[in-house]
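Checked the freezer inventory, then went back to the computational side. Two predictions to log before the end of the day. The first one is the construct we discussed on Monday; recording sequence and tokens without edits.
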Amino acid sequence: MRKMKVPAYFGPLFFSMFLLVSIAPQSLSAQSATFFISCSTSGDAGIDTYYTGVFDIGAKPGRPRGPYAVGANVGGTWMIPAVLSQTVLDHFQAYLTQKGYKFKPGSSSACDVKPTEAEAKAAQHKRAYEGGGCSSCGKVVETGWKDTR
């Protein structure tokens, strides 16, 4: 049998590869976390308030890296890529216009971005039914719309 001479750096290199493989499944499960959003139009006298469904926006928790990376801070947690609430709201309002609904445009403050679907649903419910809105406003309309762009 022939002996091979192994360079001194091979041991630490092998150990670091083993360590990386052993922690990979944990980092993959952390990457599956995402953010959820719901938005609404503004309410006004005699005008219905329309709500989107609650849906996954595909952003992951993590800090932006690099000089051109874009992220957003949501409740103390960074999400990447940044998904702008106003963009989602613009798409929703375009949908409502296409359907011929009469509504008052909302602003990005009429959106809730949360790290779990349950938190986003709770925030939407609170905004729709517990917010103490206006007594002369129209009804609350839950459209179930989700941004597919």
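The second is the one RB wanted added to the comparison set:
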Amino acid sequence: MPYPTYRACRTAAIAAVLLLVVLAAPSQAGAAPNRGTALGSESVSSGTWAATAATTSMTFTTNTDQTSAITNSGTIALSAISYKVTISNPVSGSPTFKVFACAVAWVSNLCSGGAGTQAGGTLAKNTTTTVTSSVTPAVGGKVYLQVEPAGVTSLVTVTLGTSITSPAQLRAAVKTNQ
């Protein structure tokens, strides 16, 4: 077999094997549903993040803590998550609030025996603040927030929203042998 013909056959065979691998990989049975599409040096090029709060509005009339569950129903893992916290202006008093995150549900105002991880600082009345937490819900998982009031003397409302404030909050690509 002359050299150019051998080289062409070898190149065609390699291309066929690579094409077969590429076509077979996405249709494997049991493939994880939370995979994004990777391009180039394994950066995520498609996928969704969808962390949402179960309770988005809390009304406080006393200094009693309230909780909300945050669920990540998206396909992208997070390394951090931000919460937009809006506090209304009560008729009287100067209440303050703190937001704490916990990987498990709160039990008697405790997070696995501790106080949880505070997101941001102390928040004042009549403000909208974005606070960031490194306690994140896994894909298909939850984290739990607790809003802790102090100095509540009249009705005040706290509204929670979730957001990703920078691409750095998306989990870095993980190299695999697939």
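For RB: The first strand starts at residue 37 and ends at 39. The chain has two domains: 3-46, 51-169. Let me know if you want it refolded.
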